[in-house]
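User: Thanks for the earlier help. One more: Major facilitator superfamily domain-containing protein. Can you show the sequence and predicted structure together?

Assistant: Of course, both are below.
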Amino acid sequence: MQHRDPLAGIPDPDAGLSEEERAIQDRKLLWKLDLKLIPWLSFLYLISFLDRTNIGNAKIDGLQEDLRLTNGQYNATLSIFFVSYSVFEPLTNILLKRLRPSVFIPIIMTWWGICMATMGLVHNYEGLMTARWWLGVAEAGLFPGVNYYLSCWYRRGEFGIRAAIFFSAAALAGSFGGLLAAAIAQMDGIGGKPGWAWIFILEGLATVLIGIISYWMVHDFPDEARFLTPDDRARVIRRLKADQQSSAEHEAFKMEYFWASVKDWKTWAFAVIYMGCDGSLYAFSLFLPSIISQLGYASTTANLLSVPPYAGAAVMTVFIGWLADRTRQRGLCNIFVALLGIAGFAMLLGSSTPGVQYAGTFLGALGIYPCIANTISWASNNVEGVYKRGVTLGFVIGWGNLNGVVASNIYRGQDKPRYRLGHGVVLAYLALFLLGGSIGTRVLLARENKMRARGDRDAWVEGKSENEVEMLGDRRPDFLYTL
């Protein structure tokens, strides 16, 4: 098969420079992108994760008793968030592309901040359910949106560490959330409101403010971002083209991109892997304060003891992101990390000793959090096409989050203090979906790469124009999958 020059027709602002000088320009450009994009987006995800999981902190501070919720009703308020969150996720990346990130992200943040604040004003089960439903709708656009957005800026071998830094904000949110909840809960009684209500009100108002500021802090896609000079814009698009990506370009949405994603086996393979780590993540983050409080600690101490496992998970997430970028072995990284999580939940399930159980929460955090960012990077690396990648990430993340419904209902009040059902279900998720799915997907991707290398797929491009070949995306025979 003939290989065409992907950079043909794109102006080269560095023409005439030596390879060394080009490398210096490239490093400068990467630093510029990193400083403009990553810190603020990571901060937004920290806020997002804080706002969806602080109900776990509010629960051990008296939420359930004050609203007179049964165990089933409390779990339903957790579940309803994931239903709306998952249903709307596949649509959000299309809206992100149509509305522009600098408009779409501030709108959804301000909206979910208002929903968050109203959770502190509710007086009954129905009010809390309504607020949680709308919180899910509003938050649905951020995580898949930002991962898709970053994949439109960076090459495949650079994306993993950035996705990991962005996602490590979730682990930091778990860490920071415990400290913040312990502090805000001390406002108990002020304005006639209990401490748990102030957790929702103050964090919600902060989110609204941050959402408004985001209009000036979130940048658009490479072809429209105002902070890029014309030369830098050409450099960004050239480096993406050289990496066989077309995601920086402007293109009208067509339903065929949606169906291309639905019919691709990789969409569903990555969805299975992602449900393994995401279902486990939500069970862990929503119930860690409760698990620790059952080891015999008061609510404030339990909130504080939930900090160290998250801090360790944040460091591990960034390390795995770096390692997977360097080795291009995202599947093997998933497999290794999943084994840590399986060991952690086996300890929680098998031992009644508080020290062993607390150590199990550490290994659980280390075995879950890194796989979230790594799986998203792995899926993103292996799907090409402007809209197809956005739709695929929406499906993968949406299906993973739908498993938050399961996660919300497996740590039941009647199972205290050992929570055998909860730990057992998470263990099954990690072993069957995360570990098993990662092994199976890696085997299938390696098989497809061998077929392409042998020329078995060359017939797919026969008789097609250069533009038609480009639009095949990851179905181009010269496109090799990341294992």
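User: Great, one quick takeaway?

Assistant: Residues 120 and 198 are 6 Å apart (CA to CA).
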